[in-house]
Design a protein that fits this description.
By secondary structure, the chain is α/β, with parallel strands linked by helices. The chain has helices spanning 13-16, 24-35, 69-81, 97-101, 115-127, 208-212, 221-233, 251-264, 276-281, 283-291, 306-311, 318-330, 348-361, 378-383, 409-424, 428-440, 445-456, and strands spanning 2-7, 39-44, 59-63, 85-89, 108-110, 144-148, 151-154, 184-185, 188-193, 196-197, 217-218, 239-242, 269-274, 294-302, 334-341, 365-370. It is built from 17 helices and 16 strands. Strand 15, helix 13 and strand 16 (365-370) form a beta-alpha-beta unit. The chain has a 7-stranded mixed beta sheet with strand order 2-1-3-4-5-6-7, sandwiched between helices. The chain folds into 2 domains: 2-154, Rossmann fold; 181-426, Alpha-Beta Barrel (TIM Barrel), CATH 3.20.20.70. Helix 2 packs across helix 5 (115-127) and helix 7 packs across helix 8 (251-264).
Length: 459
């Protein structure tokens, strides 16, 4: 069986400025299938818009998220019209499987981690559709949705993969890796690395806990640094983005990774996400991270309003955030901070308070977004009766997609625009930083027009 794994093109700001990472989900799936002897190709439409000849393949897999759903369905239609079996997965399809399977373009939807489920499905398809007595063999495959006799069938959930070191390293050789070396961290090419799966915190606006499970599972420090060595020596990357939701959940593991990097003498810069309370409680961890090449830490601040933080499931005090930022600055880290506007109980005054707090923290980057009820989140269940559009392309954290009782759509869009303007003009240095980014990525009128087109019409 010949298999094509696809990744729909990015949209919005990242596409406009030419920043994109390789499709890690597809690279993991490709590596797993290759190890089992299957021929796999990968097509990332963020890197190449040229349509493949789908008729060359027996199965087409599509990994997608909410924002790119429409583009994913276009791929599915073309693949199905070419006679392929079409399988869809990622942090969106499994939560709207009935909507997707009501179309004739998708045969199967994989829930959660896809490696084992997809392999079992491929083997079953190779062996024929029906088993003894005429029953469908794929009914015994866990973690799958499909339509049968006019009804959506959901098989039992598949247990998560406990030993992440048993997975092969992502099959980066299946894509043109040079296309991704254009994304820079400082002057170095940067690429993503996953070191764990699962999240125990289950924030109301995030689907990670439902998709990967609430049990946190980690790769070994040795296996992680093996991948870093491959990135530097084989693929020529000088920086890595640890994109786990909770890279610093166990500080002793972070110390072990850092010490292994130092022991091997790797010259690599890195970026990671952390929680403010972990930073405040583990200053020694920060010191060894810096020696091992850590440059940037991303923290989710979200709001300056304690009630909003509680409603979002963020058990964190603002004093802790202030102390964490002070500690990161003390040790020379670049700081990314994220903020979310538009919780149902928020007013415009609350949002102004968050903007002022962001300016007070004075981090290198502030990412402002609008609260978005993604399928698979507790927030979606809470707000689903107030959602006014399921045009999934607008679920990009830049649009208000539910009826807010206190702030209008246009008012919130204006507050988002104002937050970015006020933050990035807060000082002469901030303006200079923005200008350096503009020059580095050659952002001009064409970039702005591309972004506007995607924002309003190009979804």
């Amino acid at each position: 069986m010949k298999i094509l794994l696809t990744n729909p093109a990015n949209i919005g700001g990242f596409k406009a400025i030419g920043l994109h990472f390789p499709p890690m989900g597809s690279l993991y799936l490709g590596a797993y299938l290759e190890r089992e002897g299957y021929q796999v190709d990968i097509r990332d439409f963020s890197s190449s818009a040229e349509a493949p000849d789908y008729s060359r393949y027996d199965l087409v897999g599509i990994s997608t998220d909410t924002t790119r759903h429409i583009r994913a369905m276009k791929i599915a239609r073309r693949a199905k019209e070419a006679g392929c079996t079409v399988v869809m997965g990622g942090p969106h399809p499994c939560y709207i499987d009935e909507e997707i399977l009501s179309t004739p373009w998708v045969d199967f939807i994989v829930h959660g981690e896809g490696e084992v489920t997809l392999l079992e499905l491929v083997r079953t398809l190779e062996g024929g559709e029906d088993g003894e007595g005429g029953e469908k063999q794929w009914e015994g495959i866990k973690g799958l949705s499909f339509r049968q006799d006019g009804e959506v069938v959901r098989t039992p959930a598949r247990p998560v993969i406990q030993d992440l070191d048993s997975l092969p390293l992502p099959a980066r050789h299946l894509v043109d890796i040079a296309l991704y070396q254009r994304t820079k961290f400082g002057e170095r090419s940067i690429t993503p690395v996953f070191t764990s799966r699962g999240c125990p915190f289950n924030c109301h606006f995030c689907s990670s806990s439902s998709f990967f499970g609430t049990k946190w599972r980690a790769r070994s420090p040795e296996g992680i640094v093996d991948e870093l060595e491959e990135l530097t020596k084989r693929y020529g990357f000088g920086a890595a983005a640890f994109v786990d939701d909770n890279f610093t959940l166990f500080p002793q593991r972070v110390v072990a990774i850092s010490e292994e990097i130092l022991r091997r003498g790797l010259d690599i810069w890195w970026w990671n996400l952390s929680r403010a309370e972990t930073i405040v409680q583990n200053e020694e961890m920060l010191k060894v991270m810096r020696r091992a090449g850590a440059k940037t830490i991303y923290i989710g601040v979200e709001s300056a309003n304690p009630l909003t933080l509680s409603d979002l499931g963020k058990k964190m005090s603002l004093d802790t955030v202030v102390k964490a930022v002070e500690l990161l600055k003390k040790h020379g880290f670049e700081i990314f901070a994220s903020y979310i506007f538009g919780h149902p109980r928020e007013t415009a005054r609350d949002i102004h308070k968050t903007i002022r707090f962001a300016k007070r923290l004075d981090t290198n980057v502030a990412q402002f977004s609008i609260l978005t009820p993604y399928p698979g989140t507790a927030l979606y269940e809470e707000l689903k009766d107030r959602i006014w559009t399921r045009h999934w392309s607008f679920y990009d954290s830049q649009h208000l997609v539910y009826r807010h009782g206190r702030i209008s759509f246009m008012r919130l869009e204006w507050l988002l625009l104002m937050a970015n303007f006020l933050y990035y003009t807060r000082s002469k240095k901030a303006v200079q930083d923005v200008w350096r980014v503009v020059k580095r990525h050659k952002l001009g009128l064409g970039t702005i027009l591309t972004y506007i087109k995607d924002y309003f019409w190009g979804k």
